[in-house]
Write a structure and sequence with these properties.
The protein is α/β, with parallel strands linked by helices and about 425 residues long. It contains twelve helices and 13 strands. The chain has a domain of about 250 residues: Type I PLP-dependent aspartate aminotransferase-like (Major domain) (Aspartate Aminotransferase, domain 2). Helix 11 packs across helix 12. The relative contact order is 0.15. Bound molecules: pyridoxal-5'-phosphate (PLP).
Length: about 425
């Protein structure tokens, strides 16, 4: 068996040997193929994953840096994917977007566009503020760190959604951006975007909706009848959105979208340069080389599934979430946090040590997230979880029986990343 030694081998090996070593390398990885992992991996079923993989392989060498001259194919795919995304997210004809490598890049680019537009209007942007609910993703803090800004995290309301009044109070003359999530990562609840939109308009700040998790899920859940308030460009104050294709878009990893309400806004996102010996270079995103495979994978899955396919996948997920939530609420001492309506939710225990329960479930092969405020177990569900929900409920019920007997000094949160 080939081993990783840190030195390049003098001679190569056959693909069969290399492949065998690759498969072996994953021996201790979480078991996502059997749907026992509810974080990091979005498993829509073997057929969709095969489409995502084959499409990636078809375009793995093509480079999205060369959209205009070399690869009109990738330009067409980027235009088509972003147009599909914008239509799903209630955008008008002025709106536009780009493919990026992931949610973090989409968020950093939106923050950069916001900052640079403010600077172009003569505002002092050094130390400018982004006001976010406490539940917002750390990608905003990363953006702030890179871009010389500050994040103000505002405690969430009792139902775990953004506290609109408190956020409005936190806006001052240094505030450039307000943020709402659809949904947020810790609890899976959607922030009140229409109300945040009103604050953004009244105070003339940019509202970004982080729909990295919900962008390619919530529109289909709504078509299926989920009772969700508007969370997208249909809300007038929303200036930009992030929506990940490599989450509930089911594309191969390395694919997200960043959207702007207007082309004028997007002008502040990109980068152009020509003062070197190889001519002009313009990039709409952070990357130089952009992976054609990720473009093709997203494009292919969207055309493979279509609205009907995504709606069916969304229904599997929301039905599974409802089933799990009902079973959890029925278990003595357990409760779900807030009123999550998409594919992500968290639950905690009144008395029992929830992290001990998490550990027992992990020992049975279940790998999920945890949250700390309040302590809880968090699940980001995929369509494939429909097949294992009953087993999870049974294992949770067994763990609850055992944890009651176990000593329960509360420990710090287990690390899962
Ligand atoms: C709500 C939310 N925003 C942003 C991100 C960042 O996305 P990525 O990990 O693709 O950079 C995540 C990731 O889970 C997320 O849940």
């Amino acid at each position: 068996m080939i081993e990783s030694t840190g030195s390049m081998p003098e001679c190569g090996s056959s693909w069969e040997e290399v492949r065998e070593a690759l498969v072996y390398a994953g021996r201790d990885d979480v078991d996502w193929r059997d749907a026992r992992t509810a974080v990091y991996v979005f498993n829509p079923g073997a057929d969709v994953m095969q489409v995502a993989k084959d499409a990636y392989a078809l375009y793995q060498s093509e480079n999205g840096l060369g959209l205009t001259g070399a690869f009109p194919s990738l330009r067409e795919m980027e235009d088509d994917v972003t147009s599909m995304g914008l239509r799903l997210l209630g955008a008008g004809p002025e709106a536009c977007g780009n493919l990026t490598s992931g949610g973090t890049e989409s968020i950093v680019l939106a923050v950069k566009a916001c900052r640079d537009q403010a600077a172009s209007e003569g505002r002092e942007v050094a130390g400018g503020r982004i006001v976010v609910p406490r539940s917002a993703h750390p990608a905003f803090d990363k953006a702030a760190k890179y871009l010389g800004l500050e994040v103000v995290r505002v405690p969430v309301a009792k139902d775990f959604t953004a506290d609109v009044d408190a956020m409005a109070d936190a806006v001052d003359d240094k505030t450039l951006m307000l943020v709402g999530s659809a949904p947020c990562f810790p609890y899976g609840v959607v922030d009140p975007i229409p109300e945040l939109g009103q604050v953004a308009e009244a105070k003339d700040v940019w509202l970004h909706v982080d729909a990295c998790v919900g962008g390619y899920f919530a529109p289909f859940a709504r078509m299926n009848g989920a009772d969700l308030p508007a969370f997208d460009f249909s809300v007038p104050g929303v200036r930009s959105m992030s929506a990940d294709l490599h989450k509930y878009g089911y594309a191969a990893k390395g694919a997200s979208t960043v959207f702007h309400r207007t082309e004028a806004q997007r002008q502040f996102q990109g980068f152009s340069f020509d003062d070197w010996p190889a001519g002009g270079m313009s990039t709409p995103t952070f990357a130089g080389t952009r992976p054609g495979g990720a473009f093709a994978s997203a494009w292919a899955v969207m055309h493979y599934l279509g609205v009907e396919g995504y709606r069916a996948k969304a229904k599997l997920v929301t039905d599974t979430r409802a089933k799990l939530m009902t079973a959890i609420e029925k278990m003595d001492g357990l409760h779900v946090y807030g009123d999550p309506k998409l594919g992500l939710f968290a639950y905690g225990a009144e008395q029992a040590n929830i992290f001990a329960i998490w550990g027992m479930l992990k020992a049975k092969g279940w790998f999920t997230g945890v949250i700390t405020e309040p302590q809880g177990i968090q699940l980001m569900l995929s369509p494939a979880h429909a097949d294992v929900a009953d087993e999870y409920i049974a294992d949770l019920s067994e763990a609850m029986g055992k944890v009651a007997e176990a000593p329960k000094p509360k420990v710090g949160s287990p690390s899962y990343n």
